[in-house]
Specification:
The protein is α+β, with helices and mostly antiparallel strands. Helices cover 38% and strands 15% of the residues. It contains ten helices and ten strands. It has a five-stranded antiparallel sheet, sandwiched between helices. The chain has a three-stranded antiparallel sheet with strand order 6-8-9. Strands 7-10 form a two-stranded antiparallel sheet. Helix 5 packs antiparallel against helix 10.
């Protein structure tokens, strides 16, 4: 993302609009002058928003601020989608999902929300270093630890599913590994509020459930190498579509390579056909335990009924392998 410090950014506009918002408290410690948010620098750029690191002067902490991109500012449908993302994420209160702190709009109509800053590395970065054979990464991220990371991702996704939310874009790049062991599932921008809410009645409510987070039949959203066959066809989805994506992430964890390579049309054709390269032989230099290989194969089945039915069922199979591996290591020691 380009960042021009000489140009007045959306964040600067919002910060100026917030100036004086808490000035009525009569306290010298809160809102004593200047904007509420101070721009520190860019973090990233997504499909709908720009993410900036900003300083909350009242609380004296850094937060991530996501701002609706300028080209969408006058698009009512995109504004509703953006607000729906903030509302859905804020209601998914789980340790594996960064909390949303605030939502607002500047006088010119620019919409923003702030959330926890997650410092660390993406799973993509870790897998890339493992593929390159970096010693420090190999020492820290053993297969046992990566399987534990996958288990926590599954638990987070299951929580969202129980709240009636499908992520629809699970991939290593959307998993952040924090400096202190945190595992966060990021970017709920194309999440869908689904009818299937498991056994809970406490579902997620957004500003536009009938429009903002529903996709017209035949529309494809997501990242091609990680989407399920039904998602690649533009069919209706349930939680087993995210389970497939979890399988695609596990495939990359096991092999250090994505399941599919090529152009987007080529990959789409292979995904729709269920033409998945065998996980055991994808990377000859990487030994793949059979139990994990079998789990990966089932999760990436063409038929949704053949997959683990839920993300938590996926997690339990990972735990079975982890417990067995720990017992074998204990006996060896």
């Amino acid at each position: 993302m380009r960042f021009d410090p000489g140009r007045k950014s959306e964040v600067d506009t919002i910060a100026a609009a917030d100036e004086g918002a808490v000035r009525t408290h009569g306290s010298a410690e809160i809102g004593s002058g200047g904007p509420k948010y101070e721009t520190v620098g860019p973090i990233g750029r997504g499909g709908m928003g720009v993410v900036m690191l900003v300083r909350d002067r009242d609380l004296r902490r850094d937060v991530a601020m996501k701002v609706l991109r300028e080209e969408f500012a006058s698009n009512d449908a995109m504004r509703r989608k953006f607000v729906a993302e903030a509302q859905a994420t804020s209601q998914l209160e789980h340790p594996g999902i960064p909390p949303v702190h605030d939502i607002g709009a500047s006088p010119d109509g620019t919409v923003y929300f702030t959330m926890k800053v997650v410092r660390g590395r993406t799973l993509t970065d870790v897998l890339k270093d493992l593929f390159l054979g970096r010693k420090e990464t190999r020492a820290e991220y053993t297969l046992h630890k990566l399987a534990t990371v996958m288990e926590r991702i599954c638990e987070t996704v299951h929580f969202a599913h129980e709240k009636g939310v499908l992520h629809r874009d699970l991939k290593p790049d959307n998993v952040m590994l924090g400096e202190f062991g945190e595992v966060h599932v990021m970017d709920w921008g194309i999440a869908k509020v689904a009818a299937d809410r498991g056994d809970t009645t406490a579902g997620v409510s957004t500003v536009d459930e009938d429009g903002a987070q529903r996709t017209k039949p035949g529309t494809i959203k997501g990242t091609v190498p990680y989407m399920s066959p039904e998602q690649a066809r533009g069919d209706s989805l349930d939680r087993r579509s995210d389970v497939y994506s979890l399988g695609a992430v596990l495939y990359e964890v096991l092999t250090l390579l994505p399941a599919f390579e090529g152009t987007a049309p080529q990959i789409l054709d292979r995904v729709r056909a269920g033409d998945v390269p065998p996980v055991e032989t994808r990377n000859p230099r990487r030994e793949v335990p059979e139990l994990l290989a079998a789990l990966c194969r089932r999760a990436m089945s063409l038929d949704p009924a053949a997959r683990p039915p839920t993300a938590i069922a996926f997690a339990r199979e990972l735990r079975t392998w982890l417990d067995g591996r720990a017992e074998r290591d204990r006996r060896h020691a």
